[in-house]
Amino acid sequence: MFLSDVRLLNFRSYCDAVVAFGPGLNVVVGANATGKTNLLEGAFFALRGTSPRTRREEKLVAWGQRFARVTVLLDGLGDRPQEVEVGYAPGDGKRVRWDGLEVAALDDLRSRCQVFIFVPESLLLVKGSPARRRAHLDAYAAAVDPPYAAAARDAQSALRQRNAQLVNVRAGATAETLDPWDAQFARAAAELGRRRAKLVADLGQRFADVAAGLAPAGERFALQLVSQLDALGYDESVFLGRLRERRPLEVQRGLTLVGPHRDDLRFVEVAAGEGDETVVEDGAGSRTEGPLFPDGSCGTVALPAGGRDLRLFGSQGEQRTAVLALLLAEQALAAERTGELGALFLDDVMSELDDARRRLLVARLAGAGQAIITTTNRHYFTDEELAAATVIELPLASSAVSGRPEA
Question: Collapsing DSSP states into helix, strand and coil, what is residue 67?
């Protein structure tokens, strides 16, 4: 699948603009505030029904306008191009059409095509909260694995109900009234935990390969799920026993303190040279043995437990590379499960990468279907790379742009 055309109407800084893309590498070049990020955000909004940058959708409407609309033309999904249109008006909500027919649910829209985006806010996947990483995992899985989506909904529903009953018990209800909610939550949590562990294991294999391919010095990286359920074997009955043990404290807090809603995802460097060994005991207590900086001026430094956590100790370039590796791993796994190689939208990914990583990334993208990269500096690309790409200059001479800045 690839985007052949995108039309932005009253979207962010665009009044009315049409951009045509090619099927392979696309390089969008423009100075700051020319609409590069807004262009990718608009295309993603059409294909996912949500913005990757804000939950306040009124911000998407151009200054002084009553509505915003984005239309995308897709090739490669069937015997003819297909049109996706998303419109939003504050107070009236959002309407989605696929080839002219209404799409009732966003999950339906997201299951029809795959798209992966990096924007500056994407760095929060490494630097931000566990809740953000869980939400990202669940949103990705919902598009490629419907049973996972159902398990996530069941677990969230059971969690809300159990938390409400914990509050009731704290207010005076008998503790035995928690028994059915414990059983329901244990069943749903174990199911979600098993599916999430399988998903992270599948992604982790691909992540390690991609991250190694983007590391010019031969570093090795891993994706680790940190889960309380791992030590319990994702066993429903064992987890139910743990809930009963923790009941007094949870009643006091009015919250469920153990379960998949406490999971986290870690991006770690697990070794830095040949011959290093990695030993993973479990998600919360993993350890890695081997030299981290064997040739450094400070001598040999052993990796900390679980590896070097990029959230705490990674450079900006390493964190950016980790997010890119995750997106490429997600694209590869989705292609295996759906048969579709989704498009990649990469906003300003080159600025924090050194030249060696830039060359490795562009080489990797050559086999990754359609990729749209924005940049302020075309010199981040070689002449050969630009000659093989579709190059789009912003601002567009044929488009009207509103007075609202790119933000």
Answer: coil
Return all residues near 82 (Cβ < 8 A) that are at least 6 apart.
Answer: 73, 74, 98, 99
The residue type of 300 is T
Total-model pTM: 0.87
Tens-place pLDDT, residues 30-46: 999 999 999 999 999 99
Q: For residue 272, give the nearest of 216, 188, 346, 194 by alpha carbon.
A: 216
Q: Which residues pair with 279 in a beta bridge?
A: 287
List Cβ neighbours of 225 (8 Å cut-off, separation of 6 or more).
Answer: 196, 197, 200, 201, 263, 264, 265, 266, 283
Distances (CA, A) of 176 to 61, 182, 217, 397: 52, 10, 58, 70
Residue of 84, 79, 69, 61 whose CA lies nearest to 3: 84
Main-chain dihedrals φ then ψ at residue 99, nearest 5 degrees: 50, 40
Peptide bond into 395 cis (omega under 30): yes
82-89/68-75 β-pairing: antiparallel
- Is 216 in a helix, a strand, or coil? coil
Among 249, 268, 358, 271, which Cα is nearest to 319's? 268
Percent of the chain that is helix, strand, coil (3-state, to 5): 45, 25, 35
- In this predicted model, what pLDDT tens digit does every residue of 205-260 receive, in sequence order? 999 999 999 998 889 999 999 999 999 999 999 999 999 999 999 999 999 999 99
Burial label, 78 (beta-carbon count in 10 A; 0-12, 13-18, 19+): exposed
Q: Up-side HSE of residue 96: CA atoms within 13 Å toward CB?
A: 16
Give CA–CA dist 137/393, Å, rounded.
34
Sequential DSSP letters for 123-188? GHHHHS-HHHHHHHHHHHHHHH-HHHHHHHHHHHHHHHHHHHHHHHHHTT--GGGGHHHHHHHHHH
Q: Which domains does the chain have, with CATH numbers?
A: 1-113+340-407 (3.40.50.300)
Q: Which residues lie closer than 8 Å to 356 by C-beta, 6 or more apart?
A: 216
User: What are 331's strand-pairing partners?
Assistant: none
Tens digits of residue pLDDT in 268-322: 998 654 323 333 334 333 433 444 444 455 555 565 666 899 999 999 999 999 9
